[in-house]
Amino acid sequence: MTTSRSHQRWVLGLASLGSFIVVLDLLVVSTALSTIQRHLGASIESLEWTINTQVRPRGAVRGVDPQR
Prior knowledge:
By secondary structure, the protein is mostly helical. The chain has 2 helices and no strands. It has a domain at 20-62.
């Protein structure tokens, strides 16, 4: 395996791990929203910012064209 190919595999592995962590974090927060709402007595509308702070940056990163 050449050095270039080794670097490509590391980049792919780290990017995959990063994506997994983001999705896992989003899943945990989404699952906990009803509990958070119950314990804090908040409306779902007031907790909307929790999901927005995670979804928006992820959408911005996914919109980047890797070919440029």
